[in-house]
Amino acid sequence: MGNFKPSQYEIKDALKEVCRYEGIYVGDNFVMKDHGKYIEINIDADNKKGHISFDLYFDENGRLVDWKKHK
């Protein structure tokens, strides 16, 4: 097992990856919370609510492996 800690991940790379798959426009502002095994993130977005939220999951090497979009 590696020494990966989600709070030390370069989050902009994960945001770009998630947004590319979700097909959304994202602003530069975001708030994140480290839950230990995943990061919860709220991102300014060009949509009805004005933001979009995800839980981002990483492997022990720091690679983004999954995300769950909040409804």
Question: Which key features would you list for this structure?
Answer:
71 residues, alpha+beta, 4-stranded antiparallel β-sheet, 1 helix, 4 strands
Short description:
This protein is of the alpha+beta class and 71 residues long. Helices cover 17% and strands 44% of the residues. A 4-stranded antiparallel beta sheet has the order 1-2-3-4, covered by helices on one side.
Explain how this protein is built:
- The chain has 71 residues and is an alpha+beta fold.
- Helix content is 17%, strand content 44%.
- It contains one helix and four strands, in the order αββββ.
- A four-stranded antiparallel beta sheet has the order 1-2-3-4, covered by helices on one side.
- 11% of the residues are buried.
Summarize the topology.
Elements: H1 11-22, E1 26-34, E2 38-45, E3 51-58, E4 64-69
Antiparallel strand pairs: 1-2, 2-3, 3-4
Distance separating the two termini: 32 Å
Spatial strand sequence of the major β-sheet:
1-2-3-4
Write down the secondary-structure element order.
HEEEE
Number of helices: 1
Helix content: 10-25%
Mean model confidence by pLDDT: 76
Poorly predicted segments: none
Tell me the radius of gyration: 12 Å
Q: How would a crystallographer describe the biggest sheet?
A: 4 strands, antiparallel
Structural class: alpha+beta
Task: Give the percentage of residues in beta strands.
Answer: 35-45%
Oligomeric state of the chains present here: single chain
